[in-house]
Amino acid sequence: MKVLISAKSKHEPFPIVGIGGSAGGLEAFQELLKNLSARPGMAFVFIMHLAPEHRSMLAELLARETKMPLSEAKNHASIEVNHAYVIPPNMNISVANGKLILVKRAVTDMKHMPVDHFFRSLAKEKGSKAIGVILSGTATDGTLGAESIKAEGGIIFVQDEKSAKFNGMPQSAIKAGCADFILSPKKIARELEAIAEHPYITSIKHIDKDSSIIMEKEEMEDIYEILRSITSLDFTHYKTPTLNRRISRRMAMLKITKLKDYVKFLREHEEEVKDLHDDLLINVTSFFRDPKVFDALKKRVLPEILKSKKKEEKIRIWVPGCSSGEEAYSIAMCLVEIFGYKANLRPNVQIFATDISERSIDRARKGVYGKNIKDHITGARLKRFFTKKGDSYRIAKELRDMCIFSVQNVFNDPPFSNLDLISCRNMLIYLQPILQSSVFHKFHYVLNPNGLLLLGQSESAVDSSNLFKVIDKKQNIFVKKFPSSISEIKFNSGLYVPKKLQINERINVKNAKEADLATIVDHIVLREYARCGVLINSDMTVVSFRGQTGRYIESAAGRPSLDIFKLTRKELLLPLRAAIFKAKKSNHKVRVDAEGQKHNGRRTLVNITVIPVENDSLDEKFFLILFDESPILANANLLSKSKGMPVKSDAYINNLQKELDETKEYLQTVIEEQGGVNEEVKSANEEIVASNEELQSTNEELETAKEELQSSNEELITTNEELQNRNAEAFLLNNDLINLLSNINMPVVMMGIDFTIRRITPQTEKLLNIIPSDVGRPISKIKLNVDIPDLENMLSDVIKTLQSKSFEVKDMDENWYSVHIRPYRTIDNKIDGVVMIFVDITKSRKAEDVVRQAREYAENIIETMREPLIVLGT
Predict the structure, then answer these.
(1) DSSP secondary structure string for all residues of 86-147
(2) Does residue 510 register a pLDDT over 90?
(3) Which entry of 22, 128, 324, 360 is annotated as an active-site residue?
(4) Are the C-beta atoms of 345 and 336 separated by less than 8 Å?
(5) SS (H, E, C) 9-25
(6) Active site annotation includes 83
(7) In this structure, are residues 554 and 534 in contact, taking their beta carbons and an 8 Å threshold?
(8) C-alpha neighbours within 13 Å on the C-beta side of residue 567
(9) Tell me: the pLDDT tens digits for 271-305?
(10) Which one is catalytic: 49, 117, 198, 444?
């Protein structure tokens, strides 16, 4: 099967490129259009922030720079290939069913985001064939829409910082991890034309709609192998269409059209393996995604969980596949809002948020997000739960303390235990049923009785209806059921071992045993004059043939078999059975005779010898069967006729009698063997039943203990990682604070609520008589070098009123200081003490004294003069 590429017509599907910009975007638009040919094989839609009340000249200005037809977009106009369209003023533009849809801009308090609006519709319309371009502009418009395009497998271009007149929009997309290419408008145009001819983007015939490039099975196995070896992750059971789209997308970006060439590229570039790995994980999320779901959580689900908990019990929630942490923090906000501001009423909550991507977990731990989160979070929540930090927002400490983030593979690593709620949204849709079933069994195992499971809108637990029962169909909320059988969950080591190595190891062991066995058999055969025969094991299966055995055994018609009783010729079968049974029972060599077939007109007597083969190096018992023959005498079976009727000779009758005796002996042997086997089976069955019950009970106990230990260990590791990160942050902050205080050339005293000294600067020792060993003592217990009347009352007033106080004092050396007492505020804006700062004002105070003394001296001179005096100014 081949990929067929043909020239596009207006009836064939083609990619649509959305190009967004605002301030400085006109120049970037013009530069991009200048470098596009007249037939790029795409359609282009330009979206810019336009003044709603003025007529736009954007279409006329851009049309001068291109040979393509370019016009202002009209409502319900069909999009044509090699055409460009411009957004009209005071409109939102989107695409649906191959047509442009214009809707008048709504008057709201929300900031106008036309680029996001168009990009979202483009992602829904074109899927993996959607292309977004973000050029010069301020603010963050385009970032959320770019995330939607990336989630569908589309490609995002972003203007580089050097060529962008305003870098707000491009930088926002780059920080969000949306940018696939960061280039100047000129280079973006070249890349667009190159990608337009790639099978991932262009029209393809004879290919399933879910596949962008035909994926050969062998090459796909190679890609799985490379990913496993570099990232230790197995993508074998991920959904094939998703894998195909993501691999095709990477090939398009690298301009590789053949899968075997991409496999070669992966082997030579480890960085591309990591990029493909990140692409396959599809980390897309946002705060309060699907608001109705969180309304249901806040009004129904979380209150029910809280009612079932005692005061000292923890609420335990798990968010697998948390990406950059927005969903975990959203759940934490809901919990805090349920209990209000009073900390003493807030429950003990642990929200375990895990993801397989280390980059995503690092971002979640930092809790710093771009300013575009304002589109998903109300102003009240933004003010209450976030602190603005430049162009970003930092999550509040109270939410950060509730969430524990860790890197975890949900398929292989041990899960958390005793959970009240699992929120796993839009992760299962990328998995094949075999992995989905494994995850559902794991979720069922770790949830508490009546524990709840929240899934995404496109997911369902219908195939696991024996494990979960739906309680809210609209919001996809399920409750744990109690199945008749215990849920089984298995944890893999996560380590990948090549299969070829395992096979080689087994072959080596087998070859060693076969060598020992062959040596033993050779000795026996030589001792028995090297007669032909076969070697069988205890299951009566032929292991090897010795010599020419065709006259004694042959393969029957039908399916091939190595069972000795199916291979043996009919006339030798009964004697052979009896001989094998006797040898097995007595563990000694047994020899029997049997009449064979005619050979060269003469009937022969076959000697069958069965020899047990045992050795300490062998795992089981073997039997060597040897065949030999000798001719039967000519008068052994004479027939004569009398009166037309056959007459049997005595020799013939004796032969029949012998055959009858052999049959009786064989039947007796079979009866004895069957009786012994029945007894053994009965006894073994009773033992097996008893042992099975014991083993099952023991296995359940061990399995439970193992999972509890693994879960506890996972939590300890996660907690340890959190503590290490926080210790590192605290260490850095402590160093910064020490250096800051050491280099401030003024006395500073930090005190707690009870006026206990926390920190001081070196200058406090000389001025206030406070030395480092006084840290931890109340300031009232220290005799200061300056007299500050009613100090404790002033400190108390500052804490109560939150109003700073300032006054002047003089020390024993006649130096003057301006004292400032201010409240000590924590990061969460809580008052936790006071800060007292002393500023040396001796020089300014002495200058004031000189001026005052001069004025007094002049006044005294004037008062002592007897003559009238007038002082005039200039």
Answers:
(1) EPPTTEEEEEETTEEEEEEPP--SSPP-HHHHHHHHHHHHHGGGEEEEE-SBSS-TTHHHHH
(2) no
(3) 22
(4) no
(5) CCCCCCCEEEEEECCCH
(6) no
(7) no
(8) 21
(9) 888 888 887 877 778 888 888 999 999 888 988 88
(10) 49
Query: Token digits for 490?
Result: 């298995």
- Six token digits for residue 833: 């003490």
180 included as an active-site residue? no
Give the three-state DSSP class for 443: helix
* Contact between residue 787 and residue 807 where contact means Cβ atoms under 8 Å apart: no
* Identity of the amino acid at 227: L
- Token pair, residue 450, equals 């009546």
Choose the catalytic residue: 116, 121, 141, 444.
Answer: 141
Name the token pair of 844.
Answer: 């300014």
As a three-state string, the secondary structure of 315-345 is EEEEEECCCCCHHHHHHHHHHHHHHCCCHHH
Q: Going by DSSP bridges, is the β-strand pair 130-134/386-389 parallel, antiparallel, or unpaired?
A: unpaired
**Cβ contact 749:764 at 8 Å:** yes
Only one residue has tokens 């014991």, namely 694
CB burial of residue 751 (10 Å; 0-12, 13-18, 19+): buried
Cβ proximity of 162 and 183 under 8 Å: no
Return the amino acid letter for 6. S
Length of the chain in residues, anyone? 874
Residue 280 near residue 246 (C-beta atoms within 8 A): yes
Average pLDDT over residues 626-647: 54
Sheet containing strand 403-407, strands side by side: 403-407, 348-355, 314-320, 419-424, 447-455, 477-480, 468-472
Determine contact, residues 470/477, Cβ cutoff 8 Å. Answer: yes
CA distances from 500 to 224, 493, 503, 506 (A): 16, 19, 5, 10
CA distance 387 to 172: 18
**pTM (global) more than 0.70:** no
Nearest to 289 by CA among 321, 328, 315: 328
Phi first, then psi, for residue 696 (nearest 5°) are -65, -45
For 203, residues 6+ apart whose C-beta sits below 8 A from its C-beta are 5, 6, 8, 12, 13, 14
Residue 22 annotated to the active site: yes
Return the SS3 of 46.
strand
